Amino acid sequence: MCGRSGNGCRWRSHGVSYGVMTVLAMVMTSLFLSACNGPVDEPLGKEAMVGEASVNAGETGGTEEETSTADTMTNSGLAERLTVYSARKDHLIQPMFDRFTAETGVAVQFTTDKAPALLARLQAEGERTPADVLLTVDAGNLWQAAEAGLLKPLSSPVIEANVPAHLRDAHNRWVGLSLRARTIVYHTGKVRPEELSTYAALGDDAFKGRLCLRTSKKVYNQSLVAALIDHYGLTEAENIVGKWVKNLATDVFSSDTQLIKAIASGPCEIGIVNTYYLGRLQRAQPDLPVAIFWPDQQDAGFGVHVNVSGGGVLRYSHHTQAAQRLLEWLTSKEAQLEFAGLNLEYPINRSIPRDPLIEAWGDFRQDTIAVSRFGELQADAVKLMDRVGYR
Fold it and tell me: Lowest-pLDDT range, 3-17, 231-245, 253-267?
């Protein structure tokens, strides 16, 4: 049966026999459709509909004009619809899509999955994809999508006015939509702020057996190391990361949340995380003995490492104008207040007010490296981490 959750629709199975019958029915239907119409695309991840238009997630449509005409015939009465592939979780994007639909009359259908799975799906679908927009986290993932030819360049004075140049693609294939600071956190009862200085200094002997890190397999850390390579050069960046590994108090963690909890309760005293993970825990536990330190790499001329979540219009979109309109809308002041606030991220435009919890962390000097460099140097970063034993 199909149950409602907000404006989205989810299919749920009830009982083993029903599930078996459903699978058999799907197989028979797939074979029938394959014989008649060619391959049938199987959806990945979760799919939901924002607005009331009922559409098939595997539908590709015809030309833009033909699709627009068909859109006016959906049972919602909405003039147009968009399909979004998103690596951001449902609860972080559905409220924004609901609001966008209410303000513009454009319905939004979305599928959520991990970024690698979405990129693989888009490559497999090619020009048959139903998707119009890709939303994902980390500039490295956005760079990969662009380099794979999945995104089309846009010309948007609105985006250029709202988003600083270093937080979007130089060829206008993608744009940052929220800002993420990856910085140092420490146990307030075991570490004095004056002991801390830079990312590189975490490799000093004073922090031996006190440092914890998230796994190198996470793209956030790959991007941080890519930034170190860009600023310090490959040899010195390798020296810095190698010293981090020697100072580890325990094995690397699979998540920033686990790392922060380990700082609060032991065995760690210091770590590097995205700030919104700390914000989530502070909301639930205001007295958590973990605080933020903003490093400033004056020796290398840069500040706190920042990254983005962002998006781009897909190469084979049949609704380019509406897709660009969605990205532009997400950079607007009203949308930014909510879009960034839902996950305690920073608005992409720093002139926009921040969530009070974020404001309490204080201000910092932002590294202004072009975030596209994280993708360009990603392979070098991964190889470097392998060489020094950072797992």
Answer: 3-17
Secondary structure (3-state) at 385: helix
Indicate if the pLDDT at residue 116 is higher than 70.
yes
- What's the CA dihedral at 48, 138, 342, 80 to 10 degrees? -40
CA distance 92 to 209: 36
pLDDT above 50 for 125 = yes
**What is the CA 272 to chain-centroid distance, rounded?**
18
Compute the mean pLDDT over every residue in the chain, rounded to the nearest whole number.
Answer: 84
What b/e string do you get for 161-200 counting C-beta neighbours within 10 Å, with b at 16 or more? Answer: ebbeebbbbeebbbbbbbbbbbbbbbbeeebeeebbbbbb
Q: Which residues is 86 bridged to in the sheet? A: 112, 135
Tell if the pTM clears 0.90, that is, is over it.
no
Contact assessment for residue 109 and residue 84, using Cβ atoms and an 8 Å cutoff: yes
User: Which residue, chain included where needed, has tokens 């993420």?
Assistant: 180
Query: By mean pLDDT, which of 25-34, 75-84, 230-239, 300-309 is the weakest?
Result: 25-34
DSSP for 242-267, please give it: HHHHHTBSSSPBS-HHHHHHHHHHSS
Give Cβ neighbours of residue 348 (< 8 Å, ≥ 6 apart): 162, 163, 164, 167, 176, 177, 178, 179, 308, 331, 336, 340
305: β partners = 182
